Amino acid sequence: MIPAQPAEENQPPAEPLLSVVKGQPTAEELAALTAVVLSLGGGEPERADKPTVRHWVRRQQLRLGPTPGPGAWKRSRG
What we know:
- By secondary structure, this protein is mostly helical.
- It is 41% helix and 0% strand.
- The chain is elongated, with a radius of gyration of 25 Å.
- 0% of the residues are buried.
């Protein structure tokens, strides 16, 4: 039997995340920069079950009170 090649060898090389165009940064400086850049990237997507501001403005225009339940006191204007 011939062993199968790992999938990594079949993939083209990925583009680098960062490239240094000037200077000689240390490994620690590159690690810190990489951590900052990655932390800015993908935050948590907004929850779909959370009502939007537009929803609450519409309820106020229709003079509807907040829906009873946990946290209802936070949504009241009272």
